[in-house]
Amino acid sequence: MRIVLVGPPGAGKGTQAAFLAQNLAIPHISTGDLFRANISQGTELGKAAKAFMDAGNLVPDEVTIGMAKDRMEAPDAENGFLLDGFPRNVVQAEALDEVLKADGVKLDAVLDLEVPEDEVVKRIAGRRICRSDSAHVFHVSYNAPKQDGVCDKCGGELYQRGDDTEDTVRKRLEVYHSETEPIIDYYRAQGLVITISALGKVDEVTKKAMDALRREAA
């Protein structure tokens, strides 16, 4: 299957992508992995991406699209892939359609992980990270440390990352709503969108997603 995974920050896309890709025996292709692989390998696209990133600028769509195209055409993606973080806007979605059309294939589904906005804020703003090298992760609601502000495992100080504050999370959600969420309507017009609730335990969400994808493939 060829699948695009979408959802707001905090929906658990990375976690679900890994499990779904494993269950479906297809590669998990994330934007972050694409950037890291191309930069570490010194590809022309990687050099271009690094130059923009080093200058504090967003990587242009054409560079991201080029990386994704190369990865989707790799041998291990011949029978399918799961895209996570790409496309991030309608321009990239349209470019993806053109790439797939040129290769004589098409998307099978766009899996939309739905999470209420207040839950997204709760999930992200509640995270606390240990300052030690181990960087253990806790959550004030879901995995609270025995002593407030102290890591259970090593006694290190727990802190909230700057990009995990409520104000920052809400700004990230604004960007998601304005830039990425429109691709859901774009793909809904093609009859590709499957929306599931991403609330609940990780394995429960994975089961819901797999059941929905199997129904779509039947």
UniProtKB/TrEMBL annotation:
<feature type="binding site">
    <location>
        <position position="161"/>
    </location>
    <ligand>
        <name>AMP</name>
    </ligand>
</feature>
<keyword id="KW-0418">Kinase</keyword>
<feature type="binding site">
    <location>
        <begin position="57"/>
        <end position="59"/>
    </location>
    <ligand>
        <name>AMP</name>
    </ligand>
</feature>
<dbReference type="InterPro" id="IPR007862">
    <property type="entry name" value="Adenylate_kinase_lid-dom"/>
</dbReference>
<feature type="binding site">
    <location>
        <position position="200"/>
    </location>
    <ligand>
        <name>ATP</name>
    </ligand>
</feature>
<dbReference type="Pfam" id="PF05191">
    <property type="entry name" value="ADK_lid"/>
</dbReference>
<dbReference type="InterPro" id="IPR027417">
    <property type="entry name" value="P-loop_NTPase"/>
</dbReference>
<dbReference type="InterPro" id="IPR033690">
    <property type="entry name" value="Adenylat_kinase_CS"/>
</dbReference>
<dbReference type="GO" id="GO:0005737">
    <property type="term" value="C:cytoplasm"/>
</dbReference>
<keyword id="KW-0067">ATP-binding</keyword>
<keyword id="KW-0808">Transferase</keyword>
<comment type="subunit">
    <text>Monomer.</text>
</comment>
<dbReference type="InterPro" id="IPR006259">
    <property type="entry name" value="Adenyl_kin_sub"/>
</dbReference>
<dbReference type="GO" id="GO:0004017">
    <property type="term" value="F:AMP kinase activity"/>
</dbReference>
<feature type="domain" description="Adenylate kinase active site lid">
    <location>
        <begin position="127"/>
        <end position="163"/>
    </location>
</feature>
<dbReference type="GO" id="GO:0044209">
    <property type="term" value="P:AMP salvage"/>
</dbReference>
<feature type="region of interest" description="NMP">
    <location>
        <begin position="30"/>
        <end position="59"/>
    </location>
</feature>
<keyword id="KW-0545">Nucleotide biosynthesis</keyword>
<dbReference type="InterPro" id="IPR036193">
    <property type="entry name" value="ADK_active_lid_dom_sf"/>
</dbReference>
<dbReference type="GO" id="GO:0005524">
    <property type="term" value="F:ATP binding"/>
</dbReference>
<dbReference type="InterPro" id="IPR000850">
    <property type="entry name" value="Adenylat/UMP-CMP_kin"/>
</dbReference>
<feature type="binding site">
    <location>
        <position position="172"/>
    </location>
    <ligand>
        <name>AMP</name>
    </ligand>
</feature>
<feature type="binding site">
    <location>
        <begin position="10"/>
        <end position="15"/>
    </location>
    <ligand>
        <name>ATP</name>
    </ligand>
</feature>
<feature type="binding site">
    <location>
        <position position="127"/>
    </location>
    <ligand>
        <name>ATP</name>
    </ligand>
</feature>
<comment type="similarity">
    <text>Belongs to the adenylate kinase family.</text>
</comment>
<keyword id="KW-0963">Cytoplasm</keyword>
<comment type="function">
    <text>Catalyzes the reversible transfer of the terminal phosphate group between ATP and AMP. Plays an important role in cellular energy homeostasis and in adenine nucleotide metabolism.</text>
</comment>
<feature type="binding site">
    <location>
        <begin position="137"/>
        <end position="138"/>
    </location>
    <ligand>
        <name>ATP</name>
    </ligand>
</feature>
<protein>
    <recommendedName>
        <fullName>Adenylate kinase</fullName>
        <ecNumber>2.7.4.3</ecNumber>
    </recommendedName>
</protein>
<feature type="binding site">
    <location>
        <position position="92"/>
    </location>
    <ligand>
        <name>AMP</name>
    </ligand>
</feature>
<dbReference type="Pfam" id="PF00406">
    <property type="entry name" value="ADK"/>
</dbReference>
<keyword id="KW-0547">Nucleotide-binding</keyword>
<feature type="binding site">
    <location>
        <position position="36"/>
    </location>
    <ligand>
        <name>AMP</name>
    </ligand>
</feature>
<feature type="binding site">
    <location>
        <begin position="85"/>
        <end position="88"/>
    </location>
    <ligand>
        <name>AMP</name>
    </ligand>
</feature>
<feature type="binding site">
    <location>
        <position position="31"/>
    </location>
    <ligand>
        <name>AMP</name>
    </ligand>
</feature>
<comment type="pathway">
    <text>Purine metabolism; AMP biosynthesis via salvage pathway; AMP from ADP: step 1/1.</text>
</comment>
